[in-house]
Write a structure and sequence with these properties.
By secondary structure, this protein is of the alpha/beta class. It has nine helices and eight strands. The strands form two sheets. A six-stranded parallel β-sheet has the order 5-4-3-6-7-8, with helices on both faces. Strands 1-2 form a two-stranded antiparallel ribbon. β4 (140-145), α6 and β5 (167-170) form a beta-alpha-beta unit. The structure holds magnesium ion (MG). Magnesium ion (MG) binds next to loops.
Protein backbone atom coordinates (compact mmCIF):
# COMPACT_ATOMS: atom_id res chain seq x y z
CA UNK A 1 0.00 0.00 0.00
CA UNK A 2 1.55 3.29 -1.05
CA UNK A 3 1.37 6.26 1.25
CA UNK A 4 2.23 9.43 -0.67
CA UNK A 5 2.19 11.54 2.46
CA UNK A 6 5.10 9.41 3.67
CA UNK A 7 7.24 10.13 0.67
CA UNK A 8 6.44 7.36 -1.79
CA UNK A 9 8.91 7.89 -4.63
CA UNK A 10 6.19 7.01 -7.16
CA UNK A 11 4.38 10.20 -6.27
CA UNK A 12 6.33 12.85 -8.12
CA UNK A 13 5.35 16.46 -7.55
CA UNK A 14 3.31 17.75 -10.44
CA UNK A 15 5.64 20.66 -10.99
CA UNK A 16 8.58 18.28 -11.39
CA UNK A 17 7.27 17.13 -14.75
CA UNK A 18 9.06 18.97 -17.50
CA UNK A 19 7.33 20.08 -20.67
CA UNK A 20 7.98 17.80 -23.62
CA UNK A 21 7.54 18.22 -27.36
CA UNK A 22 4.21 16.94 -28.60
CA UNK A 23 2.47 17.43 -25.30
CA UNK A 24 -0.18 19.94 -24.36
CA UNK A 25 -1.12 21.70 -21.18
CA UNK A 26 -4.16 20.60 -19.21
CA UNK A 27 -6.08 22.79 -16.78
CA UNK A 28 -4.66 25.54 -14.61
CA UNK A 29 -1.76 23.39 -13.38
CA UNK A 30 0.60 24.38 -16.12
CA UNK A 31 3.21 21.73 -15.50
CA UNK A 32 0.94 18.73 -16.11
CA UNK A 33 1.62 17.56 -19.62
CA UNK A 34 -0.19 14.81 -21.44
CA UNK A 35 -0.53 13.58 -24.98
CA UNK A 36 -4.17 12.67 -25.20
CA UNK A 37 -3.84 10.52 -28.30
CA UNK A 38 -1.46 8.20 -26.45
CA UNK A 39 -3.73 7.45 -23.53
CA UNK A 40 -6.27 4.67 -23.53
CA UNK A 41 -9.46 5.88 -21.90
CA UNK A 42 -9.16 4.33 -18.47
CA UNK A 43 -12.09 4.51 -16.08
CA UNK A 44 -12.01 6.20 -12.70
CA UNK A 45 -15.03 6.28 -10.41
CA UNK A 46 -15.26 8.67 -7.48
CA UNK A 47 -17.40 8.30 -4.40
CA UNK A 48 -19.31 11.52 -3.63
CA UNK A 49 -19.80 12.09 0.12
CA UNK A 50 -16.63 12.82 2.07
CA UNK A 51 -14.64 12.16 -1.09
CA UNK A 52 -15.60 14.91 -3.55
CA UNK A 53 -17.77 16.87 -1.09
CA UNK A 54 -17.50 17.33 2.69
CA UNK A 55 -20.80 15.82 3.80
CA UNK A 56 -19.77 15.36 7.43
CA UNK A 57 -18.99 19.03 7.99
CA UNK A 58 -22.12 20.18 6.19
CA UNK A 59 -24.44 18.01 8.29
CA UNK A 60 -23.43 19.50 11.64
CA UNK A 61 -24.37 23.00 10.54
CA UNK A 62 -27.58 21.72 8.96
CA UNK A 63 -28.70 19.90 12.15
CA UNK A 64 -28.17 23.07 14.21
CA UNK A 65 -30.17 25.11 11.72
CA UNK A 66 -32.93 22.50 11.47
CA UNK A 67 -33.51 22.25 15.21
CA UNK A 68 -33.54 26.05 15.57
CA UNK A 69 -35.94 26.47 12.63
CA UNK A 70 -38.41 23.95 14.04
CA UNK A 71 -38.23 25.19 17.63
CA UNK A 72 -36.43 22.11 18.94
CA UNK A 73 -34.01 22.29 21.86
CA UNK A 74 -30.26 21.97 21.42
CA UNK A 75 -30.44 18.56 23.08
CA UNK A 76 -32.43 17.27 20.10
CA UNK A 77 -29.66 18.14 17.67
CA UNK A 78 -27.81 14.88 18.29
CA UNK A 79 -30.93 12.81 17.55
CA UNK A 80 -31.65 14.66 14.31
CA UNK A 81 -28.02 14.41 13.26
CA UNK A 82 -27.99 10.70 14.07
CA UNK A 83 -31.01 10.12 11.84
CA UNK A 84 -29.21 11.43 8.77
CA UNK A 85 -25.56 10.82 9.71
CA UNK A 86 -24.91 7.68 7.69
CA UNK A 87 -27.43 8.27 4.92
CA UNK A 88 -30.64 10.31 4.63
CA UNK A 89 -33.85 9.17 2.95
CA UNK A 90 -37.45 10.46 3.13
CA UNK A 91 -38.08 7.75 5.74
CA UNK A 92 -35.55 9.49 8.01
CA UNK A 93 -37.80 12.54 8.00
CA UNK A 94 -40.89 10.47 8.57
CA UNK A 95 -39.32 9.39 11.88
CA UNK A 96 -38.25 12.94 12.76
CA UNK A 97 -41.69 14.33 11.92
CA UNK A 98 -43.43 11.72 14.06
CA UNK A 99 -41.10 12.16 17.03
CA UNK A 100 -41.52 15.94 17.14
CA UNK A 101 -45.08 16.10 15.77
CA UNK A 102 -43.98 18.58 13.14
CA UNK A 103 -46.82 20.11 11.09
CA UNK A 104 -45.03 19.82 7.73
CA UNK A 105 -45.44 16.73 5.57
CA UNK A 106 -42.59 14.25 5.24
CA UNK A 107 -42.29 15.21 1.57
CA UNK A 108 -41.95 18.89 2.48
CA UNK A 109 -39.31 18.14 5.12
CA UNK A 110 -37.38 16.03 2.60
CA UNK A 111 -37.53 18.78 -0.04
CA UNK A 112 -36.32 21.28 2.54
CA UNK A 113 -33.44 18.98 3.46
CA UNK A 114 -32.40 18.49 -0.17
CA UNK A 115 -32.46 22.23 -0.81
CA UNK A 116 -30.53 23.03 2.38
CA UNK A 117 -27.82 20.44 1.80
CA UNK A 118 -27.43 21.29 -1.88
CA UNK A 119 -27.08 24.98 -1.00
CA UNK A 120 -24.31 24.28 1.50
CA UNK A 121 -22.46 21.52 -0.35
CA UNK A 122 -19.21 22.48 -2.02
CA UNK A 123 -16.40 20.80 -3.90
CA UNK A 124 -12.92 22.37 -3.64
CA UNK A 125 -11.93 24.31 -6.76
CA UNK A 126 -8.76 22.26 -7.16
CA UNK A 127 -10.83 19.07 -7.21
CA UNK A 128 -13.27 20.47 -9.81
CA UNK A 129 -10.26 21.50 -11.89
CA UNK A 130 -8.81 18.03 -11.39
CA UNK A 131 -11.89 16.33 -12.82
CA UNK A 132 -11.51 18.47 -15.94
CA UNK A 133 -7.81 17.65 -16.12
CA UNK A 134 -8.49 13.93 -15.87
CA UNK A 135 -10.99 13.98 -18.73
CA UNK A 136 -8.64 16.11 -20.82
CA UNK A 137 -5.95 13.53 -20.14
CA UNK A 138 -8.18 10.85 -21.59
CA UNK A 139 -9.82 9.39 -18.49
CA UNK A 140 -13.47 8.41 -18.30
CA UNK A 141 -14.58 10.02 -15.05
CA UNK A 142 -17.65 8.90 -13.14
CA UNK A 143 -19.37 9.22 -9.79
CA UNK A 144 -20.50 6.06 -8.00
CA UNK A 145 -22.51 6.90 -4.89
CA UNK A 146 -24.94 5.29 -2.52
CA UNK A 147 -27.98 7.33 -1.54
CA UNK A 148 -31.24 8.83 -2.72
CA UNK A 149 -31.37 10.09 -6.30
CA UNK A 150 -32.78 13.55 -5.65
CA UNK A 151 -30.39 14.60 -2.88
CA UNK A 152 -27.29 13.21 -4.59
CA UNK A 153 -28.13 14.82 -7.93
CA UNK A 154 -28.99 18.09 -6.18
CA UNK A 155 -25.49 18.13 -4.67
CA UNK A 156 -23.85 17.15 -7.95
CA UNK A 157 -25.60 20.01 -9.77
CA UNK A 158 -25.05 22.60 -7.06
CA UNK A 159 -21.33 21.90 -6.79
CA UNK A 160 -20.74 21.78 -10.54
CA UNK A 161 -19.49 18.18 -10.41
CA UNK A 162 -22.17 16.87 -12.78
CA UNK A 163 -20.89 19.07 -15.61
CA UNK A 164 -17.37 17.74 -15.18
CA UNK A 165 -17.91 13.97 -15.29
CA UNK A 166 -18.91 11.46 -17.96
CA UNK A 167 -21.53 9.67 -15.90
CA UNK A 168 -23.19 9.28 -12.51
CA UNK A 169 -24.83 6.31 -10.85
CA UNK A 170 -26.79 6.65 -7.60
CA UNK A 171 -27.66 3.39 -5.82
CA UNK A 172 -31.35 4.18 -5.42
CA UNK A 173 -31.80 4.21 -9.19
CA UNK A 174 -31.50 0.43 -9.34
CA UNK A 175 -31.35 -0.68 -5.69
CA UNK A 176 -27.70 -1.49 -6.24
CA UNK A 177 -25.66 -0.21 -3.32
CA UNK A 178 -21.92 -0.33 -2.94
CA UNK A 179 -20.17 -2.67 -2.22
CA UNK A 180 -22.19 -4.74 -4.73
CA UNK A 181 -20.26 -5.25 -7.97
CA UNK A 182 -23.46 -4.40 -9.84
CA UNK A 183 -23.20 -0.86 -8.51
CA UNK A 184 -19.76 -0.38 -10.08
CA UNK A 185 -20.86 -2.05 -13.32
CA UNK A 186 -23.80 0.34 -13.63
CA UNK A 187 -21.56 3.32 -12.86
CA UNK A 188 -19.09 2.18 -15.53
CA UNK A 189 -21.96 1.81 -18.01
CA UNK A 190 -22.97 5.42 -17.33
CA UNK A 191 -19.47 6.36 -18.43
CA UNK A 192 -19.80 4.37 -21.65
CA UNK A 193 -17.66 1.40 -20.65
CA UNK A 194 -17.64 -1.79 -18.59
CA UNK A 195 -15.57 -3.30 -15.82
CA UNK A 196 -13.77 -5.66 -18.18
CA UNK A 197 -11.03 -3.17 -18.96
CA UNK A 198 -10.36 -2.42 -15.29
CA UNK A 199 -10.00 1.04 -13.87
CA UNK A 200 -9.91 2.77 -10.51
CA UNK A 201 -12.24 3.48 -7.59
CA UNK A 202 -11.57 6.44 -5.28
CA UNK A 203 -13.45 6.77 -2.00
CA UNK A 204 -13.38 7.18 1.77
CA UNK A 205 -15.25 4.05 2.84
CA UNK A 206 -13.05 0.96 3.42
CA UNK A 207 -15.88 -1.52 2.79
CA UNK A 208 -18.08 0.17 0.20
CA UNK A 209 -15.43 1.92 -1.87
CA UNK A 210 -12.21 -0.02 -1.39
CA UNK A 211 -13.54 -3.53 -0.71
CA UNK A 212 -16.34 -3.15 -3.23
CA UNK A 213 -14.06 -1.61 -5.84
CA UNK A 214 -11.51 -4.37 -5.45
CA UNK A 215 -14.19 -7.07 -5.77
CA UNK A 216 -15.35 -5.36 -8.95
CA UNK A 217 -11.85 -5.70 -10.40
CA UNK A 218 -10.85 -2.06 -9.92
CA UNK A 219 -7.68 -0.68 -8.39
CA UNK A 220 -8.44 1.45 -5.36
CA UNK A 221 -7.42 4.72 -3.75
CA UNK A 222 -8.58 5.37 -0.20
CA UNK A 223 -9.24 8.92 0.98
CA UNK A 224 -7.96 8.74 4.54
CA UNK A 225 -9.48 12.01 5.84
CA UNK A 226 -7.01 11.77 8.73
CA UNK A 227 -7.84 8.15 9.63
CA UNK A 228 -5.66 5.05 9.70
CA UNK A 229 -6.53 2.08 7.53
CA UNK A 230 -8.37 -0.66 9.52
CA UNK A 231 -5.55 -3.11 10.38
CA UNK A 232 -7.44 -6.33 9.63
CA UNK A 233 -8.70 -5.31 6.20
CA UNK A 234 -6.74 -5.86 2.96
CA UNK A 235 -5.34 -2.48 2.01
CA UNK A 236 -6.13 -0.31 -1.00
CA UNK A 237 -3.55 0.22 -3.74
CA UNK A 238 -2.93 3.74 -2.48
CA UNK A 239 -3.82 5.93 0.47
CA UNK A 240 -4.08 9.69 -0.01
CA UNK A 241 -5.22 12.46 2.33
CA UNK A 242 -7.80 14.06 0.01
CA UNK A 243 -9.37 13.88 -3.44
CA UNK A 244 -6.91 16.26 -5.12
CA UNK A 245 -4.05 13.99 -4.13
CA UNK A 246 -5.89 11.05 -5.71
CA UNK A 247 -6.35 13.03 -8.91
CA UNK A 248 -2.66 13.96 -9.00
CA UNK A 249 -1.76 10.31 -8.57
CA UNK A 250 -4.03 9.30 -11.46
CA UNK A 251 -2.62 12.04 -13.69
CA UNK A 252 0.84 10.69 -12.98
CA UNK A 253 -0.39 7.25 -14.01
CA UNK A 254 -1.27 8.79 -17.37
CA UNK A 255 2.21 10.27 -17.69
CA UNK A 256 3.85 6.99 -16.66
CA UNK A 257 1.79 5.11 -19.25
CA UNK A 258 2.90 7.50 -21.95
CA UNK A 259 6.53 7.19 -20.91
CA UNK A 260 6.20 3.40 -21.03
CA UNK A 261 4.81 3.62 -24.55
CA UNK A 262 7.33 6.21 -25.76
MG1 LIG B 1 -18.13 8.47 1.12
Amino acid sequence: MATPEKGNPALIRRDSLAARPGSRQVGPHKHIEVRVRDVQRLLVLFDLDNTLVDRRGTLGDWAAEFTARHGLGDEERAYVLGMVAERAYPSSFDAIRTRYRLPMSTAALWREYCADIAASASCPAEVLDGLVELRAAGWRVGVATNGAVDIQHAKLRATGISKRVDGVFVSEEAEARKPLTRHFALAAARCGTGLGDGGWMVGDNPINDVGGGRSAGLRTIWIGNGRSWPPDDPGPDHVVPHARAAIDLLLLQSVDRMRTRA
